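Technical note accompanying the year-one report. For the benefit of new consortium partners, we illustrate the data format agreed upon in the data management plan: each record pairs a sequence with a structure-token string. No post-processing was applied to the example shown here.
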Amino acid sequence: MNVVIIEDEISVAQNLCDLLFELNPGIKVLVVLETVKSSIQWFQKNDAPDIAFFDIKIADGNSFEILEKITLNFPIIFTTAFDEYALKAFKYNSIDYLLKPIKKAELEKSILKYRNLYTRDKIILDNNLKLIEAIKNIKESTKKSIYKSSFLVNYRNQLIPLDVNIISYFYLENQIVYCKTNEDKKYQISNTLEKLQKQLNPDLFFRVNRQCIVSKKAVKSANFIEKRKLKLILSPEHDSEISISKLKASSFKKWMEIDRFN
């Protein structure tokens, strides 16, 4: 459990740390802050703790000023020598209010209250997140398995597997289908563009016209030309101009916006 303490009396802060360690040796005190200013700066620059202990009256004001200036999304236990702030404290993210000098038994009750209120929900949330991640991974694995990851191509009188990730585009030339790799190498593909379109992951490849299917990674830019058509600049460059009709331009732009740099 990660803890932040806001307390301007060193002896009181040390006593609180000692009590916390006695109750749970696994507790980690991230920082002890003494002022409103330093507290705001710390919370703005660092990840939220699991819980924080706020002394109310501190060196340059009171800790309510922190809560009024920034939004904090973790539970707070207020510690103070004065009981007149109790009602105001519970307007914030407070789960308890401890009067100084802090007693071990009272602190233990506060920690137990925190665990009852937050730990169970955190476990449920963590389990749900793990389940969502597992489902996502299964979907991704299934999605990848239905699309081709490589193609066998003829190269110097032998068949070699060509990883789909290094293919920049497929194109039709003299009724023969070829692919061009990102290293500007050309290979013949024993397939039609129609069949390739079904075999390729649509998140990664787009049929721009009747003669060409391009990889997202190969698209350097797309420029508008006459009648709102698009002219593609590919890497490596293609020998002929690759254009997209006005009708297809909209769907192409949407495709380019999905996971463009993944």
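Partners are asked to follow this layout when depositing records. The longest helix spans residues 104-145.
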